[in-house]
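Q: Got a minute? One more chain.
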Amino acid sequence: MRKILTMILVLLLLLSACGGQDKGKTEPEETHPPEIGDVTDPTEAMLNTDEMAYMKVMVYNVYYQDIDARAANVTELLHEVDADVLLLQEVSVGWISYLKEFMADYGYSYYAYGRYGAEFSDEEMDSGDAFTPILWKSDKYDLVESGHFWLSSTPDVVRSARWIDGTVSEFPRCNCWVILRDKQTGREVFVTAVHLDAYNSTVKYYSTDLIIQKMTELRGDRVAIAGGDWNLPLEDPAYGLIAGSEYPDMRHQAEQTTDEGTWNSFGKKPDDALGFGDHVFISTNAVSKVYDVLIEESKIDGVAISDHYPIVVEFYY
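A: Always. Here it is, folded:
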């Protein structure tokens, strides 16, 4: 009898121990992979929250010579791309009548100031003057502010091209900028058009450093974009200066991007060996979506209509 009682007691103790272990045990929750559409895109969420504005920008060096033979094709490309903002380089006197007709036909306003100090008028231009005009859709943006400065140690002096160590640019370079306000959202963006010296690395470094300083000074807390013909190969110290700043290369920021170059020298360089001189730099507070180089789109019968291919970018701000 005592043995039976002992066995019963042992069984009760064992059952009690097992019950204690089960009582404190937590089973893992069953998980399932998310269904397509379940995951919220953080970029989309930010757009919805902040009511950001969208902008499409085209950057294009249109070349300063042989204009009459190419102008119709170039302006048709500008129309087809339908960018909100156009940043153009090498706009010489021969381009003005064509661009003014284009702007009148398709509703663009502009800000431009020549490197020798002229307004954007063929009557006022020196034959050697050139512009880097900024064009924007008149029905989409209000102009908040605009200005320009020369790339030199005395940026407020017309035609100045000398730096503090005595280095001189080949030509004076006038850098234009605007602040645009989106009429629908009220959001503002700082935009500047750039064309640097083609030959002197010291001048390019000083010029890039000045542009960084001016952008930071003028943009406030707005998104800022700087596009144009920087004449900066990827190994140039000036490229590293701005790409490593708060204005990185948009090529490396955009969700959809390309590694193609832009300089084709009117077809003398094959499409798989294009030069890297045109760039778009954008502040880190932008949401960069697209960075593209239009190669086939800017050819007629297989021939490039300028010695550079255009860059087209899209972003939210």
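A: Residues 2-23 form the longest helix (22 residues).
Q: Perfect, thanks.
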